[in-house]
Specification:
Layout: H1 4-9, E1 16-24, H2 42-53, E2 57-61, H3 62-67, E3 78-82, E4 95-98, H4 102-112, E5 115-118, H5 122-130, E6 136-142, H6 147-160, E7 167-174, E8 177-183
Parallel strand pairs: 1-5, 1-6, 2-3, 2-5, 3-4
Antiparallel strand pairs: 6-8, 7-8
Amino acid sequence: MLELEDLLAQQHKLKGFRANFVTNSKAQFTGPNNSSRDLSNQVDFALLLNLRSLTDVIVTDAATARAENYKPSKWAPIQAWSSSGNFVGVDGGIAQRKIDNLQESLKQIRENFESVLFETGPTLTQLLGKLFEIDQLKLTVVESPGLQAARSAAAITLDKLALNYLKESSVFTVAGTHFFTFDR
């Protein structure tokens, strides 16, 4: 049986755009408090921290930064993006960037950072998917009765996020939690 340490050791720095997401077996992105933290567990959180340590910049959206109570990371700088410019409730230690043109913003971040981790909500992730910008998705499926149910939730999630162009490259189960990697 795979252990958490084995899963973490298999992660690597990705040149390009990586998205990280958690869902449950019903393909829901948040729990009762409208936060993905309601779904996340100890092993998912360990993977998140590991992925953060392997990136040059973390991008989230202002709504996610508020809902998840984001604070600056010790591993990489965090940028909160917003098309509306509403950064009320976003920690002042996080760079705030109003996005007028998403494609231009993606071009700029690509020019300045080799490895980008998107920790965005479904709205921005779906926009990125429609532009075919995500190179890799790390998807954690929690609360699943088994691998078949987790695969079903993963397929629904890929559909919702417009990431169907990515293909499953690996799946690992640690402590009843399923970790999928989808690549171009």
